[in-house]
Amino acid sequence: MDAISNVPTPANERVYSYAPGSAERAALEGRIKELAGASIDLTMTIDGRQRMGGGAPIDVVQPHNKAAVLGRTHDATAQDVQEAIDTALAAAPAWRSLSFDERAAIFLKAAELLSGPWRATLNAATMLGQSKTAQQAEIDAACELIDFLRFNVAYARQLYTDQPMSSPGVWNRMEYRPLEGFVLAITPFNFTAIAGNLPTSAALMGNVVVWKPSPTQQFAAHFTMRLLEEAGLPPGVINMVTGNGQAVSEVALAHPDLAGIHFTGSTATFQHLWRTVGTNIGSYRGYPRLVGETGGKDFVLAHPSADPGVLSTALLRGAFEYQGQKCSAASRAYVPRSIWSGLRDDFVSMAESLTVGDVTADLSTFMGAVIDGRAFAKHKEAIDRARQDSGVDVLTGSYDDSAGYFVRPTVLEVADPAHEVFVKEYFGPILAVHVYDDGDFDAVLDQMEGVAPYALTGSIIAQDRYAIASASDRLRFAAGNFYVNDKPTGAVVGQQPFGGARASGTNDKAGSIFNLIRWVNARTIKETFVPPIITPPFRGDIPQSGFEQPDLKKLGY
Ligand SMILES: NC(=O)c1ccc[n+]([C@@H]2O[C@H](COP(=O)([O-])OP(=O)(O)OC[C@H]3O[C@@H](n4cnc5c(N)ncnc54)[C@H](O)[C@@H]3O)[C@@H](O)[C@H]2O)c1
Ligand SMILES: N[C@@H](CCC=O)C(=O)O
């Protein structure tokens, strides 16, 4: 089509409340029932065809009811991964020559389908497979993924319209080519939206993708793939391989056409991927783009002027929503003694009153289970160690994996601000609190700024504007997303572009133009309309422009 279209102006998707008696609640409950008993094959999708991976089987269960198997997936083998790469590369010429409008329409349609008929399916799958409450599934699997799909189209259009200046007689253009090769998207268990965004953002920019979701998110990923197909994604553009990723690392990272990695997950995994790419660097066609958003040890710093109600709400929601399994979750808090002495008992009893259980059976439950046995064992060990540590006061916290992987909200009060609990990411509902003398605010600020290797999210809770300004300035490099008088979680696409620095990742801000820039490789084109020509005899002066009078004799006059 010979036109430069206006893409639809994006707006954040409305968040449904799922109030008792509402139509959306009835639809969700119905879908939960159907999917809970479905026990489906969680296949790979290569060239639009679904088939099981050739490796070891993996049962995908409900974390809050570990005996309930939602489906079975298989590890992809080296041969499976090779096939996914070959398919992607074969699909590349047609996909990249499709116009942006045609590509964008697929993802806009996916957003529309998810906003309507697919909403209950993806929310139910996320609740069942990742143990999210209805509210947490809604803000993730529905709203955030819809926002990613819609806002990315608008950001891509903005990027494409960014063009260089031209001078008289010259037209300069910038062509935003996709990367040459394939993009490998490796996604985490905790956000259905992130899992959907990582392959689709690269594909929107004209790239072909091999996508490997986390096995513990495979249930919702399976339906995300079906949604994209219904939206019209051509076969081969995004190829999904399943399993733990061993073969993906071995084959894709050694492939000469690896053009980029779009990763979200732990710092250790990203460092492994980066190291492997580094080792193989001479063998690629180009320099693979490495985009990785990783772990955090996110803080809440309270000033003596803080409103205690704001502080306790930020801590309860920031630390315990989705069982603390958000990369943004508050896992360390610094609270002045004057506030803590009045707040502690109430805060602990509020934490103890949070309901924990099967989020799909009772939609009012505040927390579900942690994702799997490995996560449960890690949290159990951390709590047991804390109990044996004389420097740690376990104010509340317990665990039970008899039916599901349940870890109750855990609050540790610790005097030593350099203790492991302020440094290590547990990625669960464990909050460490350091109580300081009110006069030590500045010293605390200096210490907590660099005690952990991460720099993802953090909050300052204060009424005193000088304290807010000082914390904002001195914590400038300690968080990629910084909050004033709010919890450190819940970034919204288009409002708080998300990502952190230091060990927390490359900070390419998911759902923003900065991220999309990583998936293009710009070509600059200069066209000179009337080029200068050197005519003999050469007198040593090189014409600077082609604006000499035309030779009328040559033209026949
Ligand atoms: N910064 C962010 O935006 C952000 C967002 C979500 C999660 N996270 C982080 O993600 C982590 C939790 O997610 P997770 O447990 O799924 O992380 P993880 O690193 O264990 O797994 C992430 C993905 O990498 C895959 N993987 C693991 N080893 C691999 C290998 N050798 N080769 C190829 N693939 C491999 C996994 O199967 C999964 O798909 C936390 O550290 C959290 O902070 C960060
Ligand atoms: N973007 C989400 C966190 C994603 C990581 O898990 C938030 O802001 O809470």
TrEMBL record:
SUPFAM superfamilies in UniProt: ALDH-like
Pathway it works in? Amino-acid degradation; L-proline degradation into L-glutamate; L-glutamate from L-proline: step 2/2
Domain Aldehyde dehydrogenase as annotated: residue spans = 57-512
- One GO biological process term: L-proline catabolic process to L-glutamate
Instruction: List the InterPro entries.
Output: Ald_DH/histidinol_DH, Ald_DH_C, Ald_DH_CS_CYS, Ald_DH_N, Aldehyde_DH_dom, P5CDH/ALDH4A1, Proline_metab_enzyme
What are the alphabetically sorted keywords of the record?
A: NAD, Oxidoreductase, Proline metabolism
Pfam families in the cross-refs = Aldedh (PF00171)
Identify the domain of life: Bacteria
Q: Name one GO cellular component term.
A: cytoplasmic side of plasma membrane
The reply to whether Transferase figures as a keyword in the UniProt entry is: no
User: What's the catalysed reaction?
Assistant: L-glutamate 5-semialdehyde + NAD(+) + H2O = L-glutamate + NADH + 2 H(+)
Which top EC class applies here?
Answer: oxidoreductase
Record GO terms (molecular function): L-glutamate gamma-semialdehyde dehydrogenase activity; proline dehydrogenase activity
The record's EC number reads: 1.2.1.88
Q: NCBIfam families attached here? A: D1pyr5carbox1
The record's family statement is: Belongs to the aldehyde dehydrogenase family.
Can you name this protein? L-glutamate gamma-semialdehyde dehydrogenase
| Source organism (scientific name) | Nonomuraea muscovyensis
